[in-house]
TrEMBL record:
Organism: Methylobacterium brachiatum
UniProt GO molecular function: nucleic acid binding
Segments forming domain Integrase catalytic: 75-212
Entry superkingdom: Bacteria
Annotated protein name in UniProt: Transposase InsO family protein
InterPro entries: HTH-like_dom, Integrase_cat-core, RNaseH-like_sf, RNaseH_sf
Gene3D superfamilies: Ribonuclease H-like superfamily/Ribonuclease H
GO biological process: DNA integration
Record Pfam families: HTH_21, rve
Length: 212
């Protein structure tokens, strides 16, 4: 008869607590959190506890086959190397007093690196241009920029500036957020791991990523 490790009860409680706090995480990401907290544990052991305790693995939405390849990348323009395709989008958040925030997120679709986060109460075409220009100074100029077809993206100043710098803009179709899946995935993690976990008091912040 096999015996359980001495720390089984403590690890079980830590697993349940992490799963309760991060409701959309599966056992693999819970394993990473436990390891970051100091647990010497592998994903197989966490999976066994996960199943034994009846924890629910979040279901994945089936992608639309006409728009995605088997590896999950977009059919319309698959990133082949660093600086091939950048994507940017906007995320909504709020400060402690209920006032809205806008966060511009910019990622490299090939490396999945976050190249910039710009936070402000409002972000217009000038703010978007500033974020893109700063990122290009740090990381180089991309060949393509994929972005939403919403109000911020169709401003004449932004289109003219991008045309002068070299990249080609790849607009996604209205009502088709899955076409910007890389940025959408990053934004989901940003909400889960930051925006829903913290209280924000200020509305002015800028982050520029570094090459990885």
């Amino acid at each position: 008869m096999s015996t359980l490790p001495a720390d089984e009860d403590a690890l079980t409680q830590a697993t349940i607590a992490s799963a309760s706090e991060y409701g959309r995480y599966g056992y693999r990401r819970i394993t990473a959190l436990l390891q970051a907290a100091g647990w010497q544990v592998g994903k197989d052991r966490v999976q066994r506890i996960w199943r034994r305790e009846g924890l629910k693995v979040p279901q994945k939405h089936r992608p639309r086959s006409r728009l995605w390849l088997n590896d999950g990348s977009c059919v319309r323009l698959r990133p082949l190397h660093r600086n091939h395709v950048w994507s940017f989008d906007f995320v909504q958040a709020r400060t402690h007093d209920g006032r809205s925030l806008r966060i511009l997120t910019l990622i490299d679709e090939h490396s999945r690196a976050c190249l910039a986060l710009k936070v402000a109460r409002r972000i217009n075409s000038v703010g978007a241009i500033e974020a893109l220009a700063d990122a290009m100074c740090l990381h180089g100029i991309p060949e393509h920029i994929r972005c939403d077809n919403g109000p911020e993206m169709i401003l004449k100043a932004l289109r003219k500036w991008v045309a002068k710098t070299g990249p080609q803009i790849q607009y996604i179709a209205p009502g088709s957020p899955w076409e910007n899946g890389y940025c959408g995935s990053f934004n989901g993690k940003l909400r889960d791991e930051c925006l829903r976990q913290e209280i924000f008091y200020l509305a002015c912040c800028r982050f520029h990523g570094h090459p990885v």
